[in-house]
Amino acid sequence: MSRSRPNFLVTGTPGVGKTTFSGMMAARFNMLHIPVSRLIAEKHLWHEKDEQRDCTIYDEQLLDDEIQKILSENSEGGVIFDFHCTDIVPSECIDYVLVLRCDSDILYKRLQQRNYDPKKITENVDAEIFRVVLDEVIDDFPQEMIKEISSDTMADLDHALDMVGELLSMSH
């Protein structure tokens, strides 16, 4: 499979800024942004609700079929998948994994602003402190594909966009 543009997985704990950053990337570099959580909701790619966590549990087969369709329709690359789970796209279809990291106090405030349940806030802040998503990425992808990005401020995200620009220029 030869792509003319790299595909990205933008991942991290809920609230770190994945969708914001992915949207900025898509706009600046004319790429296709796939917010996977929204895709699951809009196309009903889930099979049950987790009432305790106030979320849906996605159907792996339905999501996999949808992702394969997106990849085949965009075989030239330039796709940004944005999700907190790291195993939703086959690793051979991803060129770079951008892991957004956020200060726990900032993350706590962001999740409060989203009106998350206090238990869900604690769960997500703990996941960030204990590097849960980063460790999953390190287990699933080669080191040279992984870029860790601070997402505490918009300035951090602007700086990260410059880094993405460098990755894209090296990919030609």
Radius of gyration (Å): 16 Å
Structural class: alpha/beta
In the residues, how many domains can be counted?
Answer: 1
Order of SSEs, N→C?
EHEHEEHEEHHHEH
Shape: globular
Could you please say which CATH topology applies here?
Rossmann fold
Keywords: ATP-binding, Cytoplasm, Kinase, Nucleotide-binding, Nucleus, Ribosome biogenesis, rRNA processing, Transferase
Pfam family, one: AAA_18
GO molecular function: AMP kinase activity; ATP binding; ATP hydrolysis activity
EC number: 2.7.4.3
Question: What secondary-structure arrangement, pairings included, does this model have?
Answer:
Layout: E1 8-11, H1 18-29, E2 32-35, H2 36-42, E3 46-50, E4 55-58, H3 60-73, E5 79-82, E6 96-101, H4 104-113, H5 118-129, H6 132-140, E7 146-150, H7 154-170
Parallel strand pairs: 1-5, 1-6, 2-5, 6-7
Antiparallel strand pairs: 3-4
Give an overview in words:
30% of the residues are buried. Helices cover 47% and strands 19% of the residues. The mean pLDDT is 94. With 172 residues, the chain is α/β, with parallel strands linked by helices. It has a single domain, classed as P-loop containing nucleotide triphosphate hydrolases (Rossmann fold, 3-Layer(aba) Sandwich). A 5-stranded parallel sheet has the order 2-5-1-6-7, sandwiched between helices. It contains 7 helices and 7 strands. It is globular, with a radius of gyration of 16 Å. Interacts with small ribosomal subunit protein uS11. Not a structural component of 43S pre-ribosomes, but transiently interacts with them by binding to uS11. Its main location: cytoplasm. It comes from Tritrichomonas foetus. Belongs to the adenylate kinase family. AK6 subfamily. It catalyses: AMP + ATP = 2 ADP; ATP + H2O = ADP + phosphate + H(+).
